[in-house]
Every structure is written in C-alpha cells, then in structure tokens.
User: Fold this.
Amino acid sequence: MKTKHSLRIFLIALAVVGLIPQFFLHAALEKIRRFDNGIELVLIEPGQFETPDIKDYYALSKQDKEKFWHPVKNRRLVRVEKAFYLARYEVTNRQFTELMHVDKCKELGFSCGERHPAIGVNWYEAVQFANKLSEKYSLTNYYMIREDIKDNENRFPFDNRKWRVTINPSATGFRLPTEAQWELAYRAGTKTVFYWGDSAAKDTVHAYANSFFNSGYTEFRDLSGKKTFWYAKLHKPAAVGSRRPNAWGLFDMAGNVAEWCDDAFVDASTQAKNTGVRFLRGGSFKDAWPSLLAFTHEAQGAIHSDVAFGLRVALPAP
Assistant:
C-alpha cells in the first residue's frame, strides 16, 4: 500500500512539471478522498458539456407547458479544464455545527438527525465553513475573508456585511464548486435535462430527488376529487443520500437543499460583477421539477439565508 502511494506521488510530480503526459496525472490521482469527519469526495475528471440558454428554455416552456424537454438552438459549450474533487454528499448539519458552533436546524425549528443537510446557510457562512474545514485538515485557505473591509464590487443593497472575499488560486483547501464544475458533476456524462433522463414524472423524480412533491406536502381535494392546492408548510429535508445517486456516485445533486456555488453575478450587458449576488444549484425540498434541471440556477444575495439553502464542498486535484 505504501509503495502504491509513493508511486502515485511520483507520477503526479512528473506530470505536474511536464515530464510525462497529463494522462498519467489523472491515472495516478486517488478516485476517492475521505476525511475522518465523514466528508468523502469523488474525483471529477476534466470534461465538457452543452448547456442551453435558460431564458430561451423558459420562453419555450411557457408556450408548451406539457413538455418536459424543449430542444433549444442556442446552446453553448462549457469546458472544465482541470480535474477536481466534489463531495459525494451535501454538508451535514453535524459537520456544519462542529466547525461553526451553531446548530442551524435547531435555530430554524427543525428536528435534524446527524445525516440531515445543513440548512439556512448563507454564502458568507458557506465560505467560512470551507476555510474552517481547510484549517481542520491543515490545508491552505482558499478564501481570504476580510470582515473589516467593504467590498466595492458588492452592489446588493440589502447586504449589511459586504465582506471582501478574495481567493488564493494556489490554495490546497476546501472551496465551493464553480457553476461549471457543479453542472459537469451533476450531468455525470449525460446529455438529458436531469441526470436520470428527461422524465419529470413524480415517481421518477421521487427516486432521485427529495423535492416539492415528496418532501412532506399535504394535498387537498374538493368534493369531486379534484386537486385544489398543495400545503407546503410540512416540507422538510431528508437525510443526505436518501435518494439514488447519479452515474458518478454523487447524491442529492437535485433536491434536498439548494447548493451555493462560488460564482458571482456578472451583468451580461455591462460585464460588471456584483459580488453581493451568488448562485445556487440543484433546487431543494421546496422546489418542483423546473428547479431540478441540470442547467437551472438561482441568483440570491450572498447575505440571504433560507431554510432550503445548504452547500457541498470541493477540493482541487494536483
């Protein structure tokens, strides 16, 4: 075992300095990284995928509400050039509480077991958690957080923190995935709108995602038996890993809690960045199927926390 580990380190070193092809680097990388607090990360190889323009997709959806998939002409190719590791599961409430010393589940009135995801997390808390996790395992912090300096690129009017958060590109520590990394991992080599296919039938969605129609709703009907409305107050997250994984062994990429990504909002017309607005992916236990699509993202203020907001961590590969 020790000899195998030494050989892996040797091959990685040769590939990094360019003495052997990158193929050997990828072959030498560990496929799974495990930590003693239960966090387990899966190696995601470099790759690419086509993703539609979300505005075009929803324009078509409004015209034909019966279809779950609309072929969209305006598609762009997204490439992820470097391998990385992504957590197999969402960060649990136990893992979050141990490092942040705050029990979000208890604060929000939920009864959470050890395997339930962390909930009610804003973006600032997500990056703080990533740094604390890095420090726990003696990795260099990816995020440089200055609470005493206001971020001039933060234009979100309701953000009373506006901390300046910059990154250390050479850091070895934990971070949030970028949107491109997240979608590559979600798709797991598929070209369908969900990682299980194109079906949004309730039974199919239920097998893979803890979402609006299977997370504790109450359905009301009138005397004729016709459905009248849904009562969503009873909705709640499920223990991580309760549903089927995607083809790469990642659980809850759709549903359960929406997951913060690293990316800041950029205005398409002016290219101005607004670091006060960040993106969430995957939808949650409060969302129906449109929020679970591979390419759907939700823009929210970094300061905003919601019972359905959580996170999944990533690590760089050498």
